[in-house]
Amino acid sequence: MKRFIESNDRMQGTLFPEYLEDYVAEDNPVRVVDVFVEHLDLGKLGFYRAEPAITGRPSYHPSILLKLYIYGYLNRIQSSRRLEKETQRNVELMWLLGRLTPDFKTIARFRKENGKAIRKVCSQFVFLCRQLNLFSEAMVAIDGSKFKAVNNRDRNYTANKVARRREQIETSIGRYLSALETADLLEPDIAEAKTERLQEKITKLKQQMEQLDSIEIQLQETPDKQISLTDPDARSMATSGRGTGMVGYNVQVAVDTKHHLIVGHDRNQLTNMAKQARDAMAATELHVVADRGYFSSLEILKCQEAGITPTMPKPATSGAKADGRFGRDHFVYHPEQNEYSCPAGERLKWRYSRIEGNLTMHRYWSSACQQCALKAKCTPSKNRRVGRWEHEEVLEAMQKRLDQSPEACGYADRPLNILLAP
């Protein structure tokens, strides 16, 4: 094959074999993993078997398995079996683990036994980033991300799933009973064997029916009417694919906007996540951006009271704008008079206050709406009424920040994409 780059002969021996070190570049991320894990006090962090047993078969040092776990996390290799294969063919892992090849059961057991210790390693990594001044900008983006659970979809139950499964079992039992009736027409030895086999299937289906009855009782006692048998905390969630879904966790993640580092993760609300991020970064002040899915008046107020500055767009839910009429932003509030002015120049005066959805709301309207020339563009009702939350100034200040910093919209709309960007 002339005029082509020629490969080496597989049977060609080499006088001086290459070192594994030659295959891993100086800037390869596995070197960071190696140095980071080597400087951890695994015994203090609570890793199981950090000290070798006096008797028995030697085990893998936790640092080896932790390096493998972190490498799998960074390269999106979650399966223990896949990690086992990678140790046998992946040059980076050969270098990182010193050619050790733990089997998948050892890898799975390491994860199971050291869950709390691994979480402490995450805290140590955040502490290291803080020492390196990687959190110099006190600004994080918060968003949710779906993580698949071990729980299979068939082991997740809702009221509808139980009803469908019960219907399927009843249909199967009916089909087997019908087959039993026709079995008598066969020869005696064949009929006996078939009858025994069908009876076993019917017995199993009846046991499944009893299990469904038990699950249905448990469903009534759960707040969200959903049960996962393998991972109790996992929930069935819709995905982007039409008619598809997954059983998993919707984890909230706080990401540093400068270096794209995860500084906190949980399954709680905006304020709790923001506080975790502030504590992890050891920041006295913190700016948080999120998408409109996190918009909650009370959560925004809690952030403000905690010294955290939130920025997020407000959901567009104006029915008036959708119908081509004046939206809420066409009405200007005057704090000195506690009144609103409308596009026609009329004043909407305060009328009353009441509690609506745990919020104290004030209501304003004008008596001049009936004679207004712009009424058709404003409201089909007798008066155009405007509601105002008692802490509306907090939301107005946030909207002003968003208007003055358009770049924050990019973080607010796609915070987790920032993490994945090169």
Automatic annotation (TrEMBL):
Keyword Transcription included in the entry's annotation: no
Listed InterPro entries: IS1182_transpos (IPR047629), Transposase_11 (IPR002559), Transposase_InsH_N (IPR008490)
Keywords assigned by UniProt, alphabetized: Coiled coil
Start and end residues of each Transposase IS4-like domain: 220-359
Keyword Membrane appears in the UniProt entry: no
UniProt protein name: Transposase IS4 family protein
Stretches assigned to coiled coil: 191-222
Transposase InsH N-terminal domain sequence ranges: 19-112
Top-level division of the source organism's lineage: Bacteria
Organism encoding this protein: Methyloglobulus morosus KoM1
